[in-house]
Every structure is written in structure tokens, then in C-alpha cells.
Amino acid sequence: MSRDYEFDARLKNHELGNQNIYRLRYVSYQRIGEGYIKLKNNVEKMDWTLDPFMLPLGMSREEAFRVLSYLIDYIEQNLSLPECSFPGLKALNDVLDLERLGFKKVPNKETIPDADIIDLFTVTGRILLFKKSKNYKKYFDWYTEGVTLEEVKAIYQKLGLEFSDLKPEEKLSEIKTRKRKLSTIKLS
Fold first, then answer.
1. Could you tell me which residues come within 8 angstroms of residue 43 by beta carbon, excluding any fewer than 6 positions away?
2. What is the pLDDT of residues 9-61, one digit of tens each?
3. How many angstroms from the chain centroid is the CA of residue 98?
4. How many whole angstroms separate alpha carbon 55 and alpha carbon 117?
């Protein structure tokens, strides 16, 4: 019995709360042995929450999501990573530490209740299984395709800051090394 229809579900946006702490989150649902093992529940779920952070002072949510969209595209392209991959999201999480980007990591992440965090989900695999999960009610599409460097520069200029693309010495070389290590583990 094929359950390939689980890949094609459409996700709807849900209303955001007024929290000011955000977190990148990677969720992937797969079925183990689909097609040759007859198990009722052969679901494997990967759910990685990354470091909580706050937006740059004076930057709106919409602007910040556009900046994050640009950065993930830049990282995936420059590191030759597949779209919506865990290594790409992990690399984005790592560069948010760069002071010049203005995002602030929140210390003591273990003590922050989940209810105080807005998750920025990247969902892959059998999307319908995510749609049936309790986390679906927190989902919204934060990613905007095709954000340009000029748009990001304009967002930062409004804040009185100058934006320039990431440079290899700014954690990208670390990320390239980690990517080689991660490539032996199937994460995407």
C-alpha cells in the first residue's frame, strides 16, 4: 500500500502570537521500509530545534523573515546545499551569532518555555504527517522566495546599518567543514 499522497499536503498559515523570541526548527517525517515492510506505524520523525534568538532592534517581523530568507538562500547556494536541508538551517542558525547582522541569541535556552517562542519551521518529507501533528497549529510560512541583496540592504539601511553578504571567514568555512562531516549522515 503506497502512502505517497503524504508528501503532497498543503500547509496553511496560523496566527502568530506576540512573543519576541524566535527559533529555527527543522521537522522531517519519513516512513521506514515503505513498500517492503508491512508495519502499521513505521514513521520516523526528525525534529530539531535550534537556538532561540531575538530580532534586530527596530526590524519588523516581516523584514526579519525576508532577511532570514535571503540568508538561507545565500547559504544553500554558496555551500551547494539542497533546499530545505538540515545542514542549511544549522548554518543559518550559526551565522545568526554574527554581531553585524543584529540578531541576538537568547542565553539559557533550556529555561525558556516553548510557549514563549515562535518556531520558524522548515518541514520536509511526508508533509501530511506534520499537518496531523500538534505542532501544525504553530506553523506559518516565514520563508519568502527570491529576496534580493538590494532588498536586504534597504532593510538594514532603514536601521542605520550597512549590510554586506556573508564572507568565508564568518563561520562559513566552519560550516563547509561540518557539511563534509554531515554528508556521511543522511539529514536531507
1. 29, 30, 31, 32, 126, 129
2. 778 878 888 999 999 999 998 877 666 566 667 778 899 999 999 999 999 99
3. 17
4. 12
Quickly state the pLDDT bin for 112 (edges 50, 70, 90).
Answer: very high
**Alpha-carbon distance 88 to 80, whole Å?**
9
Q: How far apart are CA 39 and CA 132, in angstroms?
A: 19
Q: pTM, whole model, 2 decimals?
A: 0.82
Across the strands, what pairs with 51?
A: none
DSSP 17: -
Element (H, E) at 180: helix 173-182
Q: Are 75 and 92 in contact (CB under 8 A)?
A: yes
Rounded CA-CA distance 174/61 in Å is: 28
**For residues 113 and 107, what is the distance between their CA atoms, to the nearest angstrom?**
13
Whether the Cβ atoms of residue 29 and residue 62 lie closer than 8 Å to each other: no
